[in-house]
Amino acid sequence: MSDEQTDTHLVIFTPSGKRGRVASGTPVLQAARQLGVDLDSVCGGRGICSKCQVSPGVGSFPKHGVTVAADALSPFNKVEARYDEKRGLAPGRRLGCQAQIQGDVVIDVPPESQVHRQVVRKRAEARDIVLDPATRMLFVEVAEPDMHRPEGDFERLAAALAAQWQIEQVSVGLPVLARLQATLRAGKWQVTVALQRRTDGWKVVEIWPGYHETRICGLAVDIGSTTIAAHLCDLSTGEVLASQGLMNPQIRFGEDLMSRVSYAQLNPGGAGEMTHAVREALDKLIGALAEEAGVAREDIFEGVFVGNPVMHHLFLGIDPVELGWAPFALATSGPQRVPASELGLHMHPEARAAILPCIAGHVGADAAAVALSEAPEAQEELTLIIDVGTNAEIFLGNRDKVLACSSPTGPAFEGAQVSSGQRAAPGAIERVRIDPETRRAKVRVIGCELWSDEPGFAEAVGAGGVTGICGSGIIEALAEMRLAGVMDKRGIIGSAEVLGDVVFAEGRTWSYRLHVSGERVIAVTQNDVQQILFAKAALYAGARLLMDQLGVDHVERVVLAGAFGAHISPLHAMVLGMIPDCPLEKVSSAGNAAGTGARIALLNLSERRRIAEVVRKVEKVETAVEPRFQEHFVDAMRVPHENAPYPNLAAHAVLPDIRFETAGGGEDGGRRRRRRG
Amino acid sequence: MSDEQTDTHLVIFTPSGKRGRVASGTPVLQAARQLGVDLDSVCGGRGICSKCQVSPGVGSFPKHGVTVAADALSPFNKVEARYDEKRGLAPGRRLGCQAQIQGDVVIDVPPESQVHRQVVRKRAEARDIVLDPATRMLFVEVAEPDMHRPEGDFERLAAALAAQWQIEQVSVGLPVLARLQATLRAGKWQVTVALQRRTDGWKVVEIWPGYHETRICGLAVDIGSTTIAAHLCDLSTGEVLASQGLMNPQIRFGEDLMSRVSYAQLNPGGAGEMTHAVREALDKLIGALAEEAGVAREDIFEGVFVGNPVMHHLFLGIDPVELGWAPFALATSGPQRVPASELGLHMHPEARAAILPCIAGHVGADAAAVALSEAPEAQEELTLIIDVGTNAEIFLGNRDKVLACSSPTGPAFEGAQVSSGQRAAPGAIERVRIDPETRRAKVRVIGCELWSDEPGFAEAVGAGGVTGICGSGIIEALAEMRLAGVMDKRGIIGSAEVLGDVVFAEGRTWSYRLHVSGERVIAVTQNDVQQILFAKAALYAGARLLMDQLGVDHVERVVLAGAFGAHISPLHAMVLGMIPDCPLEKVSSAGNAAGTGARIALLNLSERRRIAEVVRKVEKVETAVEPRFQEHFVDAMRVPHENAPYPNLAAHAVLPDIRFETAGGGEDGGRRRRRRG
């Protein structure tokens, strides 16, 4: 026992808290491996890669019951000195593969030295992303050939990967095989390989002589009906190197999904045209992202793509015609992973493009990405997640069960079909307040911190001026109009006789003046209200349908996602009746959750696999054929609702009990129309 | 019990002998499945494919203790009648899926109705090939889409394959996915699919609406240094549909292997040129085979390729430079399977090209194919297997252990480097007999049954006449020359003074006149003898080296393979000393064993996988660096050998104890030269 006490030392790793005794002289990297501590190394402990940096502590650590002597680790050795000279080692840092344990010690593993390091997400409630990408780089020493044991060079490389990295079932393609022998000899039997996980093991997809450092990158792409948004990420760090977006060029074939499906139905070869258009745009986008990040296309080894079912099918080259009519049959609902080259995308020759699973004929891979980002299946509270786009994808559930549907909101929330509507961009009104006394509005625009009634507003906004109103602005505008008594429960805007000059006549209806600058008048017309009510009623009806299905009459939490959802005011959304009643502090915005989900799937292959299982278990509800959806829709054309109780809202706001005359004297038109897309 | 007796019937299947009781009314196909009898069905019992034909017996079967009543099976039904009318059902045949068991019955499953039917090989000692190819066709009924259970069409196809055919882990590529929905609907939810086994499960590689019959084909190709030989096979029956061969166009870069390796070493891009040449030739050959068989290139789903290591590397696009010097490192020794399109071969778009494993730097995939055909690892007797080509691959072993080496015989056995040498083709001398009294030769040529001293020989041979001598002819010639005292133990041809006018002077040596027709003299020169002795000594030395390694001084069985080996005379081979002494009746010819091995690997995927394991365990001996090889070589330059005993040969032939003068009066030149390739 006393021998053990002297020949072994206690080592405690932080932040994991893992501890154990190791033999005197054990390198820190080896100790970490013995104790199951996540300490990175690309070169396998040869003092080349410097990925295994640690920060040893010195002095007393009462918490751990240890006092660390100054000589608890071996002194700085030649390898560390050379590394420090050439590339610089931060004060207090040691190379884990060089420093040997000579006494009891506490060793901190900084985040960047962890293999499965976490990529921190900004929102407090969001889980961090654990790095575990499908492609990784490893340095390996390969045995030299022996004519009496004539295994091939590749078989010896595979054996080395198994022995040095516990990587089994390794395959190789012809391009690497053709360069293998020359590379092994150029690197003097030391090479760096890029390995890509496949369903049948690992594939060596790239090889460099000696120790080689390069960025290996991946793409996360959200193919929206209107815009395509892409992030280029460093697969070793999770860092976003570049982000860009562009309009989906398929718009020239049809504004919304159904018009694109119709285009495919009516024009032979139409689906192929749209497939070509989106792939070509994506390929250009990849080039632009690579240029922005200063990497080569060949450094991109993986792409994860999400999109609604029509985008999903067109991207994969599948005619979406079956998605245009019941039973809305998907060609495939499962996850797919294919060579990127088969999609016309120029990345590394062995790069793979993965597309997340679709959930149902109207609930696509983008919704799967939202589920991956927001994890409805992991919630304690009954959570309603709404991803707002041209179609809204809606999840309702918690640990016990998750339901999903999609609802055809139309593009009104994205600024289309609204007279002064525009996409969220500098100059767009995003906040609105209406004085209940004067019924006059003040606004704030994107790119400017001042309200329009504050001094210097015009100068701060700049030469472009106030250009229009974006989705979150129009929601606030309508909610404020309702709160200020400018608009009644049915959405009817009052006349000048009642409201004075804040409204003006347009044909037989009234419009509310939101902002005037010079000649330009930004107003909310009666038709604008109608369009927004269509959209919000569809949202609400979808949510209610899921609540019916689950047999609940309220939800405990609401998450609003979508580019739009990042800026929404919970109070105003509730006044408008976009969402069911719920404690206000339990309403949050998740930003571009689909894009985040794509990024998680890119950076963590297990999560990518897991979400396919999760969405398979999601209970799907098809709104298009559900009669109750129509009833809920009609009742939701009121502001906030025909009859649903809003007790939480009532605690924060009083909605005036007013009723204006309609132009025709009859009911509003909202009960007449329905469309999908 | 009596209920069971009346409600169930005894059914006995032949030839398997499997028996059991099944419920009355059970279709024969279902009974076969219950009892584990191998009865084919592509349509899954729908009366479409007719693959499940059986021959029921009637009357008394004392051997089985059963008497079969005339009504033991249900009467011919409509489906059978329709099939009989349209396509004809042989007398006594029934469709197994339609005929129901109504009494005790004996049912014969004809060979063509077995899934794993056996492809009979001609040689008595060869094992039959059990059909189990990597690609198969199946008919399947797919559930229609249901919007409330929104799995994709592909996922429902996969579920149907699992339920109806127990096929799990099914994937699909983009081309089939793009056609999937239209095909399912065109076939009214019945489709025929071609499924290909991959390392990660099965892939749907082709789809047709409804029940579809087509040949699915595969290629077995032996890429020799000199010739490429290919068979096109029907993967469902194992039938060889077409066979063709062509010269390897790489010959223009070098006659033998080493000169091609040198070409690659000396000319930048030289390896690429040779890769291109062989792939282009193969692609043309595939086109020619498809045309001969009347199938489309797209009907070919799989190719198995074998060849020596240099051919293997060049075919895969790997520079063979490392094979030119010790340690003769292979780029890969394991089996590879890649898309045929990556090799420039135009077959089905999803077709795979498999190349068998290499055994060592000089023992290639062709040797693996020989091992697959001849199964040294399964032999009771200690067996020597020699595959004769430009290089000879040699196996020695039995159940306990197998050794392998290659030996550089050179192209003499293929007719090169021999004055009148030619490839085995009509007009070539293939048999030789020399009268020991007159020392005159009679010959037989390929394509003619008569000996040259029989009446009508000249007419029977035809206008082309006797054109030269092929490998088996030259072996017989030399052995007969030795037996008739024309040539001594050292290979020296006697002078005219001793032998008379059967020899004539050429420079300072003598040539033996084998055949004269008009102006044309076909003779064996002293140099011809030298070339053949180099070749046979290399063969023998390789075999002896393996015997040394195994610690044995004789073998129990010899198998001669190679296109050449098909025609060889065991007695003459032994007189010449090509092979060690062995009972004559234990020497057999295996024909083109490499080609046969390729065909086995094509038709049976388990065998293809198994041989990779077998060759991994083979003990490799590298002749190029083994000093004893040189010693054995020199001793084997005698006819039959300097000092090895030939007791079995002595029982069949007496070799005259003579010794002629050499031209220079000294030793022969055989001890001076060695070359590889």
Keywords:
homodimer, Ubiquitin-like (UB roll), alpha/beta, 6-stranded mixed β-sheet, 18 helices, 5 domains, 677 residues
What would your notes on this structure say?
Chains A, B: It holds the Pfam family RACo_C_ter. Chains A, B: This is ASKHA domain-containing protein. Two copies of one chain form a homodimer. Chain A has 677 residues and is an alpha/beta fold. Chain A has five domains: 112 residues, Beta-grasp domain (Ubiquitin-like (UB roll), Roll); 81 residues, Ubiquitin-like (UB roll), CATH 3.10.20.880; 124 residues, 2-Layer Sandwich (Nucleotidyltransferase, domain 5); 163 residues, no CATH class; 117 residues, no CATH class. Chain A has 18 helices and 31 strands. The longest helix of chain A has 25 residues. Chain A is elongated. The C terminus of chain A is likely disordered. Chains A and B meet through helix 4 and helix 5 of A and helix 4 and helix 5 of B.
Short description:
Chains A, B: Residues 9-113 form the 2Fe-2S ferredoxin-type domain. 2 copies of one chain form a homodimer. The first copy, chain A, is α/β, with parallel strands linked by helices and 677 residues long.
Overall pLDDT of chain A: 90
What is the count of β-strands of chain A? 31
Largest interface: A-B, 52 and 52 residues
Beta strand % of chain A: 15-25%
Helix content of chain A: 25-40%
Strand arrangement across the biggest beta sheet of chain A = 16-15-14-17-19-18
Helical/strand content category of chain A: alpha/beta
How many helical stretches of chain A?
Answer: 18
Pfam family, one (chains A, B): RACo_linker
Domain 2Fe-2S ferredoxin-type (chains A, B): 9-113
Protein name (chains A, B): ASKHA domain-containing protein
InterPro entries (chains A, B): 2Fe-2S_ferredoxin-like_sf, 2Fe-2S_ferredoxin-type, ATPase_NBD, Beta-grasp_dom_sf, Corrinoid_activation_enz, Raco-like_middle, Raco-like_middle_sf, RACo_C
